[in-house]
């Protein structure tokens, strides 16, 4: 009976040792994760360059859109210009209307251009602000993650220490039981 109990305790100790090894592996993995996150934080200064590239791409897209708008306006003008010439029986009256039509459109174009530029500038400012906010949020999140991981590591270390104490106590108990068993066997 006593031997069975001792064997069971030994098995328990072995299981606990396995658990400790697994926890140590987990700790190592978490430390690796921490290192990766730190590397990410170190690489963060490179992010603004990427963001600048993105901004440039956006600017190019916006410029293309502006060009398309201008082309559309020019097409509209071209469409409006041929429409009056079809009735050419009275040749003197048709030339003035296209010019009259053209003038307001040109004025509209001239008025629209500064407005579009203003809109572009505002959009760029908004994008820059958003990107800065995103960067700050990313940094904060990464710092929080690092802190959480550090806390986890500390908790795991505490757990490991407790388990080690438990194992030591179990080993002492086993030794005492073995000594007792041995002593009892000798006395008989």
Describe what this molecule looks like in 3D.
The structure is a single chain. By secondary structure, the protein is mainly α. The chain has one domain. Helices cover 89% and strands 0% of the residues. It has helices spanning 2-43, 47-80, 96-187. Helix 1 (2-43) runs antiparallel to helix 3 and helix 2 packs antiparallel against helix 3. The model has no long low-confidence stretch (mean pLDDT 81).
Average pLDDT reading:
81
* SS content category: mainly alpha
Number of helices: 3
Q: How many strands?
A: 0
Which parts are unreliable, with pLDDT below 50 for 5 consecutive residues or more? none
Order of helices and strands: HHH
Shape: rod-shaped
Helical residue percent band: over 70%
Please give a handful of descriptors for the protein shown.
single chain; 188 residues; mainly alpha; 89% helix
Write a brief structural summary.
The chain crosses the membrane at residues 34-54, 61-81, 101-123, 130-152, 158-179. This protein has helices at 2-43, 47-80, 96-187.
Summarize the helices and strands and which ones pair or pack:
Elements lengths: L1 H42 L3 H34 L15 H92 L1
